[in-house]
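User: I've been going back and forth on whether these two constructs are worth ordering. Before I decide, could you fold them both?

Assistant: Sure. I'll take them in the order you sent them. The first construct and its structure tokens:
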Amino acid sequence: MGVESAAGSCAAAGRKAMTMASHRCPWWLGYFLVSPIRRLVEDPRKILAPHVREGMLVIEPGPGMGFFTLELARLVGPQGRVVAVDVQERMLAALRRRAARAGLADRLETRLATPGDLGVADLAGQVDFALLFHMLHEVPDQAALLASVYAALKPDGRLLLVEPRGHVSAAQFAASLALCRTVGLVSAYMAGVSQPLRAVLSKPAQPR
């Protein structure tokens, strides 16, 4: 199994749906997800920098131990904030420790999700950017999760949706994009033909 395939598989298993109460990947596999080797195929700064600016409010459901979260915190700067939401407290505890070691703890808020509740209702209409990386296909109720993200985004706020090759087909990804449109998100642009399972979506400035 290649580095990208292994990372995608473990990421998908380790960051289960916010609505899921069982069948979670063991928390200790989160250490694999933050391995420096993963950067050979998924460079957090390269992926995130086009979308994130200083001062932004960002949410990341399913952050694991923070492979992308720490880079998000660097990009939003001291005036920004990253809200990381996970169903496993051990993942969040490890993320907090890593953020503290990196000097980024003051930019990070962690929240423990409960089955059926992403836990970001208080952020309605405030979020600039949301990241769903290698996790949406594992969510039993994708529409509910996407609706929560939509509600949290401010007008013109954006969502970067990425799914793992080898685990999600083009047809499945198209179905997820259709659900995005159903909850009100619109395609800002596709992230490139070389990355067919990536899309950037936005919340329209004017309600549809």
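The second construct, handled the same way:
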Amino acid sequence: MMLRQCGMNGNKILNSLLKTNTIKMTKVANKLGLQAEANEDAILSAISSIENKKAEADDKLKKMEDKIKAMEDEMEDYKAKYAEAKKKAEDADEAKKKAEDEAEDSKAKNMLEGFVKQGRIKSDSVNEWVATAKAIGFEKAKNMIEALPVHKTAAKIEVGDVANEATLTNVIAGAMADLRIKNKI
């Protein structure tokens, strides 16, 4: 009897060692969209399909990231070109403004030199009149200067080396008489 009991215990041990341990994977099968009774091959096939889809998605993501990077690089290039073009435009505007200012200065100086020759303004005040003409406008400045009286120096009368008062008086009286005749006064 004891032998028999030993034999049964031995069979139990052998059966437990030889018995395949099957784990029920019903929750995994359900999560994978398979029936609860699905075997290992079906589960592995579903997992492989998911891995393949993930690899494809990773490839698409990588391509999109590369495309985004290329677009960002292109955008940076356009930003640099825009900044360069903007700088050129600002430089051109500045050069144009400078040329216009120089042209205005030249125009004002030419106009004012004529008034200096007429004796309406002094030559040392030309720069002040240039600033005034630029500030109020050329026509207003011209009208203001034309309204000023003429400041000419009197003509010098040369009578020789020795001159007395009587001689000078006669010369001046003669010059005045000539002017009266000329102007019909």
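Notes on the second construct follow. Residues 40-118 form the longest helix (79 residues). The mean pLDDT is 82.
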